[in-house]
Automatic annotation (TrEMBL):
It holds the Pfam family GAF. Keywords: Cell membrane, Hydrolase, Membrane, Transmembrane, Transmembrane helix. It is found in: Cell membrane. It comes from Streptomyces caeni. Residues 552-770 form the PPM-type phosphatase domain. The keyword Nuclease does not apply. The chain crosses the membrane at residues 32-57, 194-215. The lineage of its organism: Bacteria, Bacillati, Actinomycetota, Actinomycetes, Kitasatosporales. PROSITE patterns: PPM_2 (PS51746). Its main location: membrane. PANTHER family: STAGE II SPORULATION PROTEIN E, STAGE II SPORULATION PROTEIN E-RELATED. This is SpoIIE family protein phosphatase.
Amino acid sequence: MKGVSGRFARSVPDAPGETRWRLRSLLSVRSLAGQVFLLQLAVVALIVAAALVALVVQARRDTMADARSRTLAAAETFANAPGVLPALRGPDPSAVLQPHAEAARKAAGVDAIIVYGLDGITLTHSDPRQIGKHVIGPYAEAAAGKAFTRTFRGTLGLSVVSAVPVKDGDGSVVAVVTAPVRVERVQHRLEHQLPVLFGGAAGALVIAAGGAGLVSRRLRRQTHGLGPAEMTRMYEHHDAVLHAVREGVLIVGGDGRLLLANDEARRLLDLPADAEHRHVTALGLEDALAGLLASGSPATDEVHLAGDRLLAVNKRLTAPHGPGGSVVTLRDTTELLALSGRAEGARERLKLLYDAGVRIGTTLDVRRTAGELAEVAVPRFADVVTVELLDPVLHGEESLGATAGMRLAALAGPGEGPLLHPVGELIRSVTPHPVGAGTAEGGAVLVKDLRTADGLGDQDPERARRILDHGFRSLLAVPLRARGVILGTAAFWRRDPSPPFEGEDVSFAEELAARAAVCVDNARRYTREHTMAVTLQHSLLPRGLPEQSALEVAYRYLPAQAGVGGDWFDVIPLSGVRVALVVGDVVGHGLHAAATMGRLRTAVHNFACLDMPLEELLTRLDELVAQIDADEAAVGEDGQGITGATCLYAVYDPTSGRLAIATAGHPGPALVRPDGTVYFPPVPVSPPLGLGIGLPVESAELTVPEGSRLVLYTDGLIEDRHRDPDAGLSALRDALTGPYRAPEATCAAVMEAMLSDRPKDDIALLVARTRRLDPAQIAEWQVPREPAAVAPVRGACARRLTEWGLEQNAFTAELILSELITNAIRYGAEPITVRLIRDRTLIFEVSDGSSTSPRLRRAGVTDEGGRGLFLVAQFAERWGTRYTPNGKVIWAEQPLHEGAAPSVEELGEILLGSDGTAL
């Protein structure tokens, strides 16, 4: 009954709604019937379209032919109409022709009949607004007397136009008639044939739909209701899971057998070809991984070992969504760890390069720069780093590019550093050695394993053996190259257990060495320039102190770390046992400042030898500095011109203890009294040299006790970036205060107390202990202005020389003194004073109230005078004139050693010419 009832139920007709639903499902594009129906529909549509195209093409061809003949006939008929030529000759052609043109257009069935004059003016048109307008068209043929027909596509669609000339009786063209028409005549042909065509297509589709439905019902029964789309999608997903994903996929049955494994799972687990349908414990997997796959427990990102790989395992159970079993995914984390390690290494390298850019080149010292390169690479890149530089580079010279003559400039790294080479040792590199080869060839040399390297022991086999014994395993040698010249080599060493250097380390080491090489070359160039400037400056500064009795002098000079400056000092003996002390400072540093300093020091020497007053000397020096600035500005030395200088000039007279001081923008001196107290005498400060503001220079005078110490210095001693001038003067006072110290000890104490770690400016220090001449060494006489006074002074001079034990000098001394006194009496003015000083030389000074300066000349044969100064110049070692506020002083110096006084025969030769003629 059950079977009968079932068959009966199936024989009952379906309800209308159910029938429509089944029909829609059968004809769906997801069903096979729907796809077959669509294929048949496409075929029918293609056939109908082909037939329709053929009809359209045929109809269009007929329509085009009809349009051409119609427009040409209409244009020719109107052009040859009897009233056209008279109307064209009339006063208003448009008024006559427009009605006839409209009538002809309607009769001919064209869009318009348009008449154009030869000047392009529209005479008739279907749109009256266009009459009278100028038109440009392709009517040259018609204007030439030839009719034509053409097809064109306008704003209203495809159209045909014919143009016919209107000819006069003599055959000349007077106008052009055109007749356009739109091609729209195909539709009425199709209207009669389309119903038949579409009816046949509809019948074919009904038959195709019925057949497709029957086929679809048959397939659904065989595929359990899955349509083609579902089956295709299932296959595509299955294929993507098996072959496209980068994760391994396993499907394990409830009995622990492997049902499916994709290609990635086979690669990661190294499964055999017949792995499917075998138990997971029989696949040769690790026990822990096999136990997880065979168990019924899920897992999330559990890490298991599979051969040499670390796998992240995720396991999910298929129940209750499917039959018993599990789906397992495998992800290889070994490559991810390696990639992460490489990314971290690259990040560390970039950070190391950044740190190298900050830490290398902080100073302009070649050895320090090499040390910074070694320190920045240890231990982040190498265990030990050595930097070898060519010996000329260490001294600031140009690199000769030779591999010999290398010195180990820097070494960094814990442990057995001395095993390589002691710092500073001269290394004779040989080409087979990796370091020597890198320098000779100009490229990096990578030795992954020193135990198998050639040439390692060529220089020192014993040292090479000890290097290997202490665990050095890998070496990377990179030349230091800057501006195309090799300066040295940086060698990076690694010891066990550090990994050996690889190829990717070479580019990093070359980049690190390139940055360091530029800094080393900059330091080398600076060292060379600094050495040249220091050499120039030392050659321009005093190489020793002159002999004199007025002062006991000591000095210190310290160039700045940043570069040689323009500080200088000088001790200049003057006439009358006086001594000039000079301290100056040229603004700026470098060779230019040093050269300018030499020019100013020479100028001060020359001005001092002229016995100029202090004020005049500094005024002349100010003019010189201004002239130097102007000359350099004229030649366009941008940035080279000085902006001024300062100078302190002091003159000490040991006969009176008087000290005269003048300063131009320079710090005043410090005076240490014999009791150890420090005093800063007030000195009028004039503007610095070279400003050219025209202010006068003022000076100060004071009496200095014997045994006092006069301290002159430049501003670099008391000023720096951490101390202002007032604090510097206070510190200088503290350093000078105390019990007596010799000038040399005073210099040492001041430099120790005042010197900073890295002075930014030059420092010049001059300490002079004052002395006084014994009054017994000085003889002085007042002389009346009369010739008879010369003899008594000569006699007094002879007696004083006898008292001093200088009888051998008496003859010359009397001669010089008598000539000087006679010159003062004859040409000078009162008061006349004679002073005789016994020091290292015998000094004669004759002063008078006249400012007239004597002039040395050679007297003629008939001259009665003019021989006095000539005799003085011959017998005296030096002589000269200096001016005083009240007149002048003519002085001369005579040596005290034996043989300094001329004999009578020599005197005769001087007084007589070579031919015996008296001078």
